Amino acid sequence: MQMSGLEKRLANLVPMKPGENRHTRKAERIAAKLSELVVEYFPNGGFSVMDANRLKLAAQHFVDAESCRDPVIRQRATRCGEYLLSKLTRPPVPHPPAAPLECARQMLERLRKEP
């Protein structure tokens, strides 16, 4: 079913609240993407100021890539965001507690008791 031009324009209109404009909406999208990236890369916190700045800039690039219509600029923004994320210094992953060592100790004790 074909839509007239006026119906298409009305369907594309998004109501905005007072004090809201495209800049505030973009800032909200960047903040949401930033919180996603922080949860993904630093779930326990512990990131430096440089990492925070890189996360924020990567979030800006990813939001630009999502909203851009030009495929060349979209790819460029995506690669810049991925490059910034590759520069992050993640905290070291803690090793599991000594449970496997306890199992090995128990096995050694069992072997010593069975001769």
What attributes characterize this protein structure?
mainly alpha; 5 helices; single chain; elongated; 115 residues
Q: Which consecutive residue ranges, at least 5 long each, have pLDDT under 50?
A: none
Taken from the alpha-carbon principal axes, the silhouette is: elongated
Summing up helix and strand content along with how strands pair, one would put the structural category as: mainly alpha
Q: Level of helix content?
A: 55-70%
Strand content: under 5%
Determine the number of helices (DSSP H or I, runs of at least 4 residues): 5
Q: Compute the separation of the termini in Å.
A: 85 Å
Query: What is Rg?
Result: 25 Å
User: What is the string of SSEs from the N terminus onward?
Assistant: HHHHH
Largest sheet: none
Number of strands: 0
Mean pLDDT across every amino acid position: 86
What does this structure look like?
The chain is mainly alpha-helical. The chain has a domain of 72 residues. 68% of the residues lie in helices and 0% in strands. The protein contains five helices and no strands. Helix 2 crosses helix 3 and helix 3 runs antiparallel to helix 4. The chain is elongated. It starts with a helix and ends with a helix. The mean pLDDT is 86.
Give me a quick take on this structure.
This protein is mainly α and 115 residues long. The protein has five helices and no strands. It has helices spanning 5-12, 22-41, 49-67, 71-86, 99-113.
